[in-house]
Design goal:
The protein is mostly helical. Helix content is 85%, strand content 0%. It has 14 helices and no strands. Helix 2 runs antiparallel to helix 5, helix 3 (58-83) packs antiparallel against helix 13 (309-340) and helix 8 (173-208) packs antiparallel against helix 14 (345-376).
Length: 383
Amino acid sequence: MKSYSSAGQALLLLGLVPAYSAFASRVNRIQLVQWVTLFFAGNLGLFLLAIRAGLHVGIVYFLWLGIFNLMVIAQFWAFATDLYTPEQGKRSFPLIGVGSSLGAWVGSVRAGQVVETIGTNRLLVVGAVVLVVCAFLARLVYHLRPATDVVRAAAAEKPLGREGAFSLIFSDRYLTLIACLAILLNIVNTSGEYLFGRYVVENAIAAHGAGPEAAEARAAYIGGMYSHLFSTVNLVGFVLQMFVVSRVLKFLGLGRALFIHPIVALSGYLLMLKAPSITAISYLKVADNSLDYSLGNTTKQALWLPTSREAKYKAKQAVDSFFVRTGDVLQAGLVFTGERLAFAVPAFATINVVLAGAWLGVVVLLNRQLREKEADKPRVAST
């Protein structure tokens, strides 16, 4: 059902992304950020009413959540890349990433406690209130921004141009490569999640048996393995974001920093070819996910700094939502085919080696385009 829902989310985004672009062409950036955030806050209120009316909203909520957690985050980073010059963004994005990592960790810890204390329904209310606060903070940041660049300040008050998100992407090679990067990264990452899950289930069956009488023991084993993975990933990701990311960007620069994540993934899957095991895939997923949440996330957002305002809000929304979900759909098709052909773990690892190689190739091409973008765009004095 999760795999099918990814396809459903991709289909929904085919309509939502153009609708978002059309709305962005009618309002200025702060109105866009505020109204979209408040729209999603209102959705939580509708879900609460539906639950109280006795309606089953599980699948609908899962579809909504998969769209929300991509579109709102993409919009946040679009707002950030629009507020700051490239020089300012490269300095400030690692710090913003610390807030992102810390929020993810605190949120995951507190959510379980809140559910136990006040229940799921009230947690929806808490989520809606947090979104309303975020909409207020966006306006506060907007008014506190440095206003030394008169041209940028005036442009911020105007609605965006009429170009659509997909036309912007396919008419600019740089944006097309970013879209390819999002697809390949997501396929490789989610394929690794599948391999980890496959090993965990196999080990649970080997340790406790496949019968219904051992279902509780298998569930406890699987839950413990995933809990350990997520807690380790969140901790390592936070440490990397706090102490490593800014230094990597300072000494290597954005272009070279893009190579680190695919090289780690390629090396890990080459290791899986030689010595496949749950220990190897566990270490690989910790390295892969923690890099993705820290250095990878910061570099992906910084790629949008030298782009136009239309690209920041419209094209970025399409890349971070539709193209990410497209990667999910392609990965689900890959797993479906592999299962039908009885692929063993080394076969899936081989596919990921090829995909990680393609990911590296896209990074090489992106570096060329990035250098051209930075050379063509006049430097703006930082404030």
